[in-house]
Amino acid sequence: VQLQASGGGLVQSGGSLRLHCTVHGIVVRLNVMDWYRQAPGKEREMVAGIRNGDTPIYSDFARGRFTVSRGNVLNTINLQMNDLKPEDTAVYYCKAMNDYGYAYWGQGTLVTVSS
Questions:
Q1: Which of 44, 49, 74, 103 is deepest in the core (most CB within 10 A)?
Q2: Are 96 and 75 in contact (CB under 8 A)?
Q3: CB 106 within 8 A of CB 36
Q4: How many CA atoms lie within 13 A of 31 on its CB side?
């Protein structure tokens, strides 16, 4: 199983980025898919995710600025990030969990927001 995240980059404050993650190697629909992030010197934290198949959930800092959604291809997840702030700078990780509670992590994609 491999999770491939993409879409990170450098953007100015107030700009937007769209992250994409694909889970390779699982042919059944995953009901839990999440985005996490880890800023330098900080712990990894959840950003947003999908629960029960299609229900989005958000951390407080993401609500209203970020939108999480499933992709059109099986086991893909997107994260549309608008109004980005310098404090959003982090490595963003995709996480998927199967029905047995086993978690898979991707390698991360770097998002840098300049002021």
A1: 49
A2: yes
A3: no
A4: 7
Q: What are the 10-residue block averages of pLDDT along the chain, 115 residues in total?
A: 95 98 91 96 97 91 97 93 98 95 95 97
CA dihedral 57, 62, 66, 70 (to 10 degrees): -30
Quickly tell me which residue has 């330098």 as its tokens.
Answer: 40
Phi and psi, residue 94, nearest 5°: -95, 140
Query: C-alpha distances in angstroms, 86 versus 4, 29, 79, 113?
Result: 24, 35, 17, 5
Give the whole-angstrom CA distance, residue 2 versus residue 84: 28
